Amino acid sequence: MRVFVTGASGWIGTAVVGELLATGHEVSGLARSAGSAAKLEAKGVEVRRGDLDDLAGLRAGAEAADAVIHLANKHDFANPAVSNAAERAAVETIGDALSGSGRPLLLASGIAGIRQGRPATEADASPFHGPDSPRGGAENLALEYAGRGVRPVSLRFSPTVHGTGDHGFIAVLSAIAREKGVSAYPGDGTNRWAAVHVRDAARMVVLGLEKAPAGARLHAVAEEGVPTKEIAEAIGRAFDLPVASVAPDDVAAHYGWIGGFFAMDLAATSSATQELLGWTPEGPTLIEDLDTGAYSG
């Protein structure tokens, strides 16, 4: 297939592009900068210069492809309304471009807020609808295109997609620990984060492209939930820092914007995804990555 990938030069996107090429697909990728474009071109990717605000470019990329994997997001945590609006507009533009074609639209989503009180499963529908909701309600918007001749698939990534070179949440928590001189966890540290290695996540995405039916919700989850205390302890070992609890009322002051996420229980299962796709996670665990220096460079 000829696959158009947004976020092609990002952390997950880089791994997905590599997996697509390794399995014989052709790739066109969205790139904002000359540096990102050069890296993609060096891999044999056809580059489309632009960003999520270039809706005409997104439409053209989707129309020229056999499938779209939408991984880009502004991730502007200081101005979430900006990120939400851009995400919704991008999904609507791509969905309209693919309408009536039967072609796949896979989009990045997440575990946060899907379920409270127990691990989230693929059977749990997202509670987020409408442009003012998290991610602009993009998951539900995309799945509605199943009724308009598109094969939409939601890719729900673990809160940590880890590995060497990751600049996401675990890297941010590590930086905060070094800045504060202590690796902290919220409260009693029993709340959990699902986790998956980036290579396993990329394999799941490509299998989802090839096998998942319209309306599927896939969970890129290898570990159902790693307690935040264990995460903090591993960060402490990695940087030779003491480990301590942060009272719930002090989480925001200690962690800043990421505190709300680190205090959440974000456990999830992937049994249905593994059965549907024949996917078995094989990469190192999050704690193994921390203990072997993946975040120490």
From TrEMBL:
Recorded GO CC terms: cytoplasm
**Gene3D superfamilies per the record?**
NAD(P)-binding Rossmann-like Domain
Domain of life assignment: Bacteria
- Tell me the leader sequence span: none
The NAD-dependent epimerase/dehydratase domain, residue ranges: 3-213
Please give the Gene Ontology molecular function terms for this protein. Answer: aldehyde dehydrogenase (NAD+) activity; zinc ion binding
User: Under what name is this protein listed?
Assistant: Nucleoside-diphosphate-sugar epimerase
Protein's organism: Amycolatopsis pretoriensis
High-level lineage: Bacteria, Bacillati, Actinomycetota, Actinomycetes, Pseudonocardiales
